[in-house]
Write a structure and sequence with these properties.
This protein is an alpha+beta fold and about 350 residues long. The protein has one domain: 2,3-Dihydroxybiphenyl 1,2-Dioxygenase, domain 1, CATH 3.10.180. The chain is built from 6 helices and 20 strands. It has a 10-stranded mixed beta sheet, covered by helices on one side. An 8-stranded mixed beta sheet has the order 2-3-4-1-5-8-7-6, covered by helices on one side. Strand 16 and strand 17 form a beta hairpin. The longest helix has 17 residues. The model has no long low-confidence stretch (mean pLDDT about 95). The structure holds fe (ii) ion (FE2). The site of fe (ii) ion has 5 residues, from strand 9 and strand 14.
Length: about 350
């Protein structure tokens, strides 16, 4: 299980995970959920599209929700920012040199946008600029639900975590923490901005979008999001947590939105900047290690995820996936009960 070496001077400069484009069967229900429960700001809308941003964000959108067609709910693409327009041309060259798809697309409120697919097929929008809006993070009187502050990361299940990790390392992503089982990479947390993650890969059928995540100010914001969800009829949308992860030590909750897309609210991760810091290993053969406290995930947390538009999902072909963590956790609890 060779971990890729950090690439401190990558071929082009991705700065962070920035936005997701998903579809919905009911835009009004989506608006209610993301405004009232998650606490995002509706920057703009038209008849078929909602554009949201977090309270701390100045760029036009970090979540775009389009009215879904006959295919139901999907993710059209996840988005990454590059530092300047020049980096987009370098990115086009990088992807084409590897024989991977790269084409220019027009996206409202974004500057030049390059749509690429990584080796697993994940569709990525790369852009350097967006329209700029007011930052609302001190408009306390208008805060709603979890008062989500800023877009942070995605989790993308793939069948080959090693290949995906090696590719993103070449693009300058570093590993903050990782999970391994039998000397094999099962989960990698990779980052470009100065925190623990921009994108997380885990071994499961894919590529799919497992969740996207927003940061909140504190643990109370997470509890308030849950309370608001309960009062507004979204109580069943609380899928997992609140709890505290082992990796990155974050306090978290996962919701399923009205279409079934999964969104995480979290706080408490750490800053990661210095070059000499080594990735943290979580050995998945040690039961229960990946969750500090909280109930174990429901099985659907491991098995259900959003499909990417027009991207086929590859199955695991009988290999072990993250279900092993759930099995280990439950076995550990059963052994502890038996020993009492
Ligand atoms: Fe997450």
């Amino acid at each position: 299980m060779p971990l890729p070496k950090p690439v401190f001077y990558p071929p082009f400069n991705i700065t962070r995970a920035s936005h997701a484009v998903i579809t919905s069967r009911d835009l009004e229900a989506s608006r209610d959920f993301y405004e009232q429960v998650v606490g995002l700001v509706l920057t703009d809308r038209d008849a078929d599209t909602l554009y949201f941003r977090g309270l701390e964000e100045v760029c036009h959108h970090s979540l775009v929700i389009k009215r879904s067609g006959s295919k139901g709910h999907e993710c059209e693409a996840i988005g990454m920012r590059v530092l300047t327009d020049e980096e987009l041309d370098k990115a086009e060259h990088f992807f084409k040199a590897k024989g991977l798809p790269a084409r220019w697309i027009e996206v409202p409120h974004q500057g030049r946008t390059l749509l690429v697919n990584d080796p697993a097929g994940t569709p990525l929008q790369l852009c350097a600029t967006m329209s700029v809006m007011p930052r609302l993070y001190t408009q306390f009187q208008d805060f709603k639900g979890g008062a989500a502050m800023r877009f942070d990361h995605y989790q993308v299940p793939v069948t080959d975590v090693q290949t995906q990790t090696d590719f993103y390392a070449e693009m300058g992503f570093r590993i903050s923490e990782y999970m391994a089982l039998d000397d094999k990479l099962i989960v990698t947390f990779m980052f470009r901005k100065h925190s623990t993650q921009d994108i997380v890969f885990l071994e499961n059928p894919g590529p799919r979008l497992h969740h996207f995540a927003y940061t909140v100010s504190d643990s109370h914001s997470i509890l308030r999001a849950c309370d608001v969800a309960g009062n507004l009829g979204f109580g069943d949308s609380v899928e997992r947590g609140p709890g505290r992860h082992g990796p990155a030590g974050v306090f978290f909750v996962y919701f399923r939105d009205p279409d079934g897309h999964r969104v995480e609210l979290f706080c408490d991760h750490y800053a990661l900047i210095d070059s000499e810091v080594e990735p943290v290993l979580w050995d998945m053969s040690k039961p229960g290690l990946s969750l500090r406290w909280g109930l174990p995930p429901q099985e659907c947390w491991f098995t259900e995820a959003t499909h990417f538009s027009d991207v086929p999902v590859v199955e695991l072909d009988g290999k072990r996936g993250p279900m092993a963590t759930l099995e280990n956790y439950l076995a550990d609890k059963a052994r502890a009960r038996a020993a009492q």
